[in-house]
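quick one
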Amino acid sequence: MNVTKTYDVAVIGAGVFGAWAAWHLAKRGKKVVLIEAYGPAHARASSGGESRIIRMGYGADELYTVWSQNSLVQWKKFFAGAQQPLFHETGVLWLGASNDSQLRRTATVLRRCNVPFEELDQAVLEKKYPQVSFEDVRTAAGSGRSGRRSREARR
Ligand SMILES: Cc1cc2nc3c(=O)[nH]c(=O)nc-3n(C[C@H](O)[C@H](O)[C@H](O)COP(=O)(O)OP(=O)(O)OC[C@H]3O[C@@H](n4cnc5c(N)ncnc54)[C@H](O)[C@@H]3O)c2cc1C
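structure w/ flavin-adenine dinucleotide:
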């Protein structure tokens, strides 16, 4: 018997954008087919693989920072429904030479958008990470757990 299935929407590619779009369309009652060349959860997609980060620092591009803030709320809701811990808040440490304009612009936007982070100088970095050479590093931005640990290191 020849059965023809019909859908409201076909989404091609089950990377993070495709999968998210298909899921939200389905939640809104659309009949969706999600087509992926390599099957579910493969490591060839740029959003697939062992791990990925939620990044909020994009220099002066505040739009991406705001999108990332909004998406983190949705990711956390999504993770809460999963049967295993998928989100690990590890923090991030962004290193820069003196006069690193990208880091400066990032710090300005993070401050404006109330993204918690801490600016660290070379002396603090050397104390916190004695195993790393910070010879050319003059400034850094730490967020999440790396920021909290650096506050502890200064006490
Ligand atoms: C190595 C790497 C690491 C990255 N790490 C991060 C990170 O940690 N955090 C972050 O925010 N961003 C990261 N990025 C950027 C981010 O991955 C991309 O912005 C985002 O993944 C794009 O998602 P996507 O769904 O459009 O593409 P992808 O995740 O690449 O998904 C596209 C999917 O479409 C499928 N496909 C393509 N053509 C067809 C076809 N004709 N038929 C069927 N299926 C098809 C592919 O197989 C793939 O699964 C990273 C990028 C790279 C390359």
